[in-house]
Design goal:
Oligomer: single chain
Largest sheet: 6 strands, mixed
Distance between the termini: 48 Å
Strand order of the largest sheet: 4-3-2-1-5-6
Number of helices: 10
Shape: elongated
Number of strands: 19
Length: about 400
């Protein structure tokens, strides 16, 4: 249920006078989700909706689509001409000197930059300070409830067990036929998901040898044989409304024992992963603020100190929600300077990696901070070494 009072409480805590939502042709998907738009046509005219820190919300809609916001509370103002739209925006923000919008200064966090520069200019012309709604978005889009946390744990049990199915399939195929393929391993995982009621927007990444060194490798038909190194990155959620993802990456070697060159790199990556997790635990235990970029720094320092900084080519992690890449704070100080706070009720991945020309290693886990500020690492135990597939399976 859409909760105006909860948003107004968050506005007062954030020392904001209002939250101004704006959309044109479904360009602001975050606003539409928070305002719980029903399924149907996107609409073709601009609308705006102001929730002030106190008092009733206000709507601005076009005469042709004057019912666009009828599912929301508040008084309605209808415009026809562009001049009336501009006057309507000024009327909405009157008395609200500081408002939040889906905007990021200098587009530093593009995930929340959903309002065009011209509209921000129009709002500012009324003498209003526009600030980013990034943390508000997290509170009302990225924070999980208890049902979602339960669904994540259930999904995690099956994403965790998918690895046993994949490693066992590789071992059996190599023993019987001398080889299998990346795509065959991917198909095994997808069958496992289907069997356990999971869904995903895209099949997993299965990369052998040099392919594992490409973080976004598209699974192909490369053979997997004895003596090969394999990376598997998989993600899925329960096939239920409002379900949230589990997203994991693990690595294995097709042999009885793992060569030192793989294990040495894995231990560096695992140390970076653990340093990031430890920082999250320490900050929440001390009830201190933690921003996404700080967690990225904790992991990146370990890899840079080991001399492999140039081979860690992506952020340390991303928000996880109803999409694999959610709308909360990311663990990033490489691609963006993520200043949003890590909030209780949010989940994110920790997945540092080192990508060399001949192979790449990534270790990905999910971290959830519950509403009591307890930090959980989900979906099985942490991988502590490269899996010797022919020995373990």
């Amino acid at each position: 249920m859409f909760d105006v009072a909860a948003i107004q409480s968050a506005l007062r805590e954030s020392q904001l006078d209002g939250w101004l939502f704006y959309d044109f042709r479904a360009s602001n998907v975050l606003a539409r989700r928070i305002l719980q738009f029903p399924d149907g046509p996107d609409g073709s005219r601009r609308w705006a909706y102001l929730i002030p820190k106190t008092g009733a919300p206000k709507k601005l809609v076009h005469r042709i689509e004057d019912g666009a916001l009828d599912h929301l509370p508040g008084e309605k103002r209808v415009y026809l001409k562009w001049q009336e739209f501009e006057a309507g925006i000024a009327a909405l923000v009157s008395g609200c000197p500081r408002v939040a919008m889906e905007y990021s200064p200098l587009n530093g966090i593009p995930y929340i930059s959903r309002v065009d520069a011209g509209t921000v200019e129009l709002v500012r012309r009324s003498g209003v300070e526009v600030v980013s709604s990034g943390d508000l978005i997290q509170m009302f889009e990225a924070v999980w409830d208890d049902a979602q946390w339960t669904m994540h744990l259930e999904a995690g049990r099956h994403t965790d067990s998918a690895y046993a199915a994949a490693w066992a399939m590789i071992a059996a195929a190599v023993r019987a036929n001398g080889e299998t393929t990346e795509s065959a391993v991917s198909a095994t995982i997808m069958e496992h998901f289907d069997k356990h009621g999971l869904t995903t927007y895209h099949p997993p990444i299965v990369g052998v040898n040099a392919h594992s060194g490409d973080p976004h490798y598209e699974t192909g038909e490369a053979p997997i044989r004895a003596g090969d190194f394999v990376l598997i990155d998989l993600w899925a959620k329960l096939n239920q409304p409002r379900a949230v993802y589990s997203d994991l990456t693990r690595v294995g070697f097709v042999g009885e024992s793992v060569p030192k060159k793989y294990e040495a790199i894995f231990l560096i990556v695992a140390a970076a992963r653990d340093a990031a997790i430890q920082l999250v635990k320490e900050r929440f235990a001390r009830n201190e603020t933690l921003q996404g970029y700080e967690v990225d720094d904790a992991a990146r320092r370990v890899i840079e100190h080991a001399g492999y900084g140039q081979y860690f080519v992506h952020r340390t992690g991303h928000s996880i929600g109803q999409e694999t890449h959610g709308n909360g704070a990311n663990i990033d100080n490489l691609e963006t300077h993520e200043t949003r706070r890590i909030l209780p009720g949010c989940c994110f991945s920790i997945e540092p990696g080192i990508y060399l020309p001949e192979f790449g290693i990534r270790s990905e886990v999910n971290v959830f901070v519950d509403h009591q500020r307890q930090v959980h690492v989900t979906a099985g135990t942490l991988q502590t070494s490269v899996i010797p597939i022919l020995k373990a399976f």
